[in-house]
Every structure is written in structure tokens, then in C-alpha cells.
Amino acid sequence: MPVITEIEDLKRLYRRRVPKMFYDYCESGSWSEQTFRENVSDFDEIYLRQRVAIDMTGRSTKTQMIGQDAAMPLALAPVGMTGMQHADGEILAARAAEKFGVPYCLSTMSICSIEDVAENTSKPFWMQVYTIKDDDYMQRLFDRAKDARCSAAVITVDLQLLGQRHKDIKNGLSAPPKLTPKSIANLMTKIPWGLEMLQTKRRFFGNIVGHAKGVTDASSLTNWTAESFDQALDWDRIRQFRKMWDGPLIIKGIMDPRDALEACNVGADAIVVSNHGGRQLDGALSSIRALTPILDAVGDRIEVHLDSGIRSGQDVLKAVAMGAKGCWAGRAYIYGLGAMGEAGVSEALRVIHKELDTSMALCGRTDITGVDRDILMIPKGFSGDWEE
Length: 388
What we know:
- The structure is a single chain.
- By secondary structure, this protein is of the alpha/beta class.
- The protein has helices at residues 7-17, 20-26, 34-41, 82-85, 89-100, 114-119, 135-147, 166-171, 181-187, 191-198, 218-228, 235-244, 257-265, 287-298, 313-322, 331-340, 342-362, and strands spanning 47-48, 63-65, 68-70, 74-76, 105-106, 126-129, 152-156, 249-254, 270-273, 303-307, 326-329, 376-377.
- Helices cover 43% and strands 11% of the residues.
- The strands form three sheets. It has an eight-stranded parallel beta sheet with strand order 4-11-10-9-8-7-6-5.
């Protein structure tokens, strides 16, 4: 196995191994990709304060997210079509997360179904749901999650309509993918990936095909995805979803303090400050810049997590020090999965954990739950000083 010291090592392997259309699906944002880039680069503007001659022994990165134990304050975020990055990708990622002791969140738009992941893991995972018009499908989706012993439902609220991602359109990336001569030629060069895909029975959207009304094949799936996302979504609709699910609830896709307060009012247990990895509204603030105003608005009324831009243990440390209870990473573990399957996801988690643990110690702290803004140097106006 190659020596892996940082997430970028996995990304380089991933790019060589996975077809271009699926690499681009992961590694792209909407429109000009400004928000996609700044999600990452804005972390560089926050500096860590090094301390010395402090006992660094007995360190712990253990914490809880929504009251559930985690080996570090990190969850694996829901990523659509994970099973196209590597055969049975959702199962492999969930296994790696379980072994490491961090939460795994399965996407509604996964290739492996809820039942597939439940059958191949032993600990509960989280289930992400989109806001679909069909009440019958939504209730059955929540019921299936409950039957699979999912320990939280995650409602994504920032995808009422799809932000334009130029690369996906040019690559024919849709649900299901529309193959072009160029993409077929590229697929033919990815022999190990192709052989693994041939050996799995899981190549379609397992939570939708055979479960959504009238969706039995690729053509009916295309129509369903085009028509089912609810552009009329409002907070009353989210209250209806809350009644369908009586377990822990997380609302993902919050970028404004006003929406954070609305999430408090519908009975959510946590919110995720997220701009969908820069894949929806381009030109929006990075998640790390949006974090502090949201924390100030909600106080201790609700648990606040951060997603979008997490590529290292230092990113996790900075977000937690600013007040986030936990972080979510998507691309970082997808790089590992595409590069080396389950072992690659484990490597991504190991790399992030080591960097988190070492950086925390060099800041003079030994327990992640006690880390605060004192270890940071944050530029004045970092979260904005905007005209009304």
C-alpha cells in the first residue's frame, strides 16, 4: 500500500482510479465554483495558537454528536451515488466508519439501499432524506430507516431545485447517468473499477427503484427525479416530516441565522451549517464564515454541526474551537473510498484523526470537548461586516 500522510495523497490515487464523470461529480461545485473553493481556502485564514510546556499526555478526541458516542467530532456525510465511486461503496464506507467509531450517514440517492447497509453493518447509522412531494414514499422511507435501526434522520433542506454544475451536464451525469462516446471511452480505461462494478448487483438507486411509486427502471427513475423534489417546501412541510419520524432529527443545509431559529422551532435536535459543498448557491459564504452568526443566534437551544470544506484534522479542530459540536466530511472520505475501497476510508479517518490529535496537543489541549476559541486567531470581520 502507498504511504498516505494527507488527504491529498488519497485524492491523487482516487483521480487515477475512478471514471472522470464520477470524479467530477465529487470534485466540483455549481456555476463558477467560488463557494466550492472558499469552503476550503477560508479555513486557511484562521490561525492556531501554539502553546508549550504543557502536559500533553492522556489526550482524548472522544465526544458525542446528538448524544451518540463518537471517536472524534466527525461524521461521514451523505454523498449521492457513493456506490459508483467504488462497488458497494456505501457498505464499505459504513463499515469503515463503524470500525473507527464515527457516525455514517446514508444518502437517499445512494446506490446501496438502507437494507443493504443495515445487513452489512452491526451498529446504527444515520439516514439522510430529501424533501420529496410524495407523502407515501416519505413515510415509507422513514419507516424503512426505523426498521433498519437508524439512530437519526437527516433532512436536507437546501435542494428544492438543483444548482447548475457545469461538469455534470457536460459529462452526462444524471440519475441515471447518460453515457456519451467520450465517457464510455474513459470508462474503458478504468479496468479495476469496472471489474469490481461487474461483480456487484448494486448499480442502481437502491432506496428509490422498487420503492417509489412507478419507478421500476432507468427511464422511470429519470422522470421521478425530475418531478419529485418539492420546490414548495416550507417550514410547515418540515413539521409534517417531523411527525413521520419520532427519533433524533438533524436538519442539514442551514446558512442563515433566521433559518437556524426556524429549525429550532420545528423540534430538530441538531442543525448542520452547510452550503451543500458549494454545489447549490454559488457566491454564498463558506460554511466556516457562516458558523459564528448562527451559533450566536441559537445559543444553547440546539446542537450545531459544520459541513462543507472539511479536508483535514486541523479543519475539524478549528470548527470545533469556534463552537461547532461536530463536523461532517464528504469528499475527504470519498477520495479514500475511490482510491482503495474500505481501506481507503479507514485511511482518510486515520489521517484526519492524527492531524486533529497532534494539532490539539500542540495548542496545549488534551480533550477535544474542552477546546474553545482561545486556541484560535481569527481575523477581524471574518464572519462579515456587511451593509444592511
